[in-house]
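User: quick one, sequence for these tokens?
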């Protein structure tokens, strides 16, 4: 049984100074605008907070728990008003898709990762309620994609922060508004920090059949140095080299792996854990039924530390034409919708140790 209240958010609610909008149990929601003019909702529990951009992609810009930011390290400290993917690339999570996704190939004309990452939402909402997991606050809204003589759809994301957990419920519903079937390509792009001293535990093996190196994004491999080509070859044959991150590890250009057929628990969930040097952890789980593809990406140098621990997806990110040729582009029937769900967030030391044991015991 779900008991939920919805508050419509108007842009004139937001000012340069952060103001509390609502308190519910130990949760608190406040509103503000960045210097760029982008609107933000901050939801706090007793351990920390999340910051969501309600009108710009419904991105989760940051999550801070136990005084530590979960998101990637980049030179971008706050969101920038843009429609170009790489101009404001600093968030913890963005929705990618929905008609096209991935790196466009020579035959493609779609933007990098599609229209959703920086979509301008027509409406946004604060949701407050209780369910089986406890009391929560969240952000939702609607993006209307309504071009003439082209696919039309509504996207409705939702992210919920609970009062007694630092793991977020992240979902998106995509509804085809026309009678004709609609292509679907989607990725939940979660960007943790590739911190020195961290390690990965996963419900997946470490062979080159479980974790397959991709070089699709490296269109000019012949220009790479001999040292970098040798590194790529070594990482292809030995993915387990990325199981731990040492201080001097450099992954530049970025490393992309395809995650193949993770093991699941009795309820169908796959589990991925990044254990940090202090014993706490970053965590992702999802059901690889509809989200039947996944990617890991790593970018690490003096300026950037990024670990896409696992990016649950409906296809690989090789762009529309190549994914269509491989049979990976899914379809939403006319008038129907799909709902895609992921949970991700922070585990304290005790929760991390427990999850590590659970995964290592075969998710039992």
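Assistant:
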């Amino acid at each position: 049984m779900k008991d939920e209240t919805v508050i419509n958010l108007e842009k004139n609610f937001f000012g340069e100074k952060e103001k509390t909008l609502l308190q519910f149990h130990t949760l608190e929601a406040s509103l503000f605008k960045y210097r760029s003019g982008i609107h933000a909702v901050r939801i706090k529990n007793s351990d920390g907070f999340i910051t969501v951009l309600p009108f710009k992609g419904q991105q989760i810009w940051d999550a801070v728990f136990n005084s530590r930011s979960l998101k990637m390290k980049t030179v971008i400290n706050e969101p920038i008003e843009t429609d170009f993917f790489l101009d404001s690339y600093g968030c913890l999570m963005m929705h990618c898709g929905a008609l096209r996704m991935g790196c466009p190939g020579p035959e493609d004309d779609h933007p990098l990762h599609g229209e959703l990452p920086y979509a301008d939402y027509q409406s946004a909402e604060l949701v407050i309620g209780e369910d089986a997991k406890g009391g929560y606050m969240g952000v939702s809204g609607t993006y209307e994609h309504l071009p003439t003589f082209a696919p039309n759809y509504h996207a409705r994301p939702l992210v919920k922060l609970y009062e007694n957990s630092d793991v977020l419920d992240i979902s998106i519903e995509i509804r085809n508004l026309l009678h004709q079937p609609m292509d679907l390509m989607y990725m939940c792009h979660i960007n943790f920090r590739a911190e020195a001293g961290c390690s990965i535990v996963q419900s997946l093996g470490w062979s080159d059949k479980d974790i397959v190196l991709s070089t699709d994004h490296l269109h000019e491999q012949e220009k790479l140095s001999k040292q970098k080509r040798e590194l790529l070859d070594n990482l292809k044959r030995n993915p387990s080299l990325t199981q731990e991150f040492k201080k001097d590890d450099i992954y530049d250009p970025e490393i992309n792996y395809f995650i193949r057929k993770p093991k699941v628990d009795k309820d169908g969930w796959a589990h991925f854990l990044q254990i940090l040097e202090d014993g706490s952890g970053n965590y992702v789980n999802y059901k690889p039924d509809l989200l039947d593809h996944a990617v890991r990406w790593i970018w690490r140098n003096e300026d950037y530390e990024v670990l896409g621990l696992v990016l649950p997806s409906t296809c690989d990110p090789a762009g529309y034409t190549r994914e269509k040729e491989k049979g990976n582009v899914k379809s939403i029937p006319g008038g129907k919708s799909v709902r895609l769900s992921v949970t991700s967030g922070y585990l304290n030391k005790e929760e991390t140790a427990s999850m590590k044991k659970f995964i290592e015991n075969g998710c039992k």
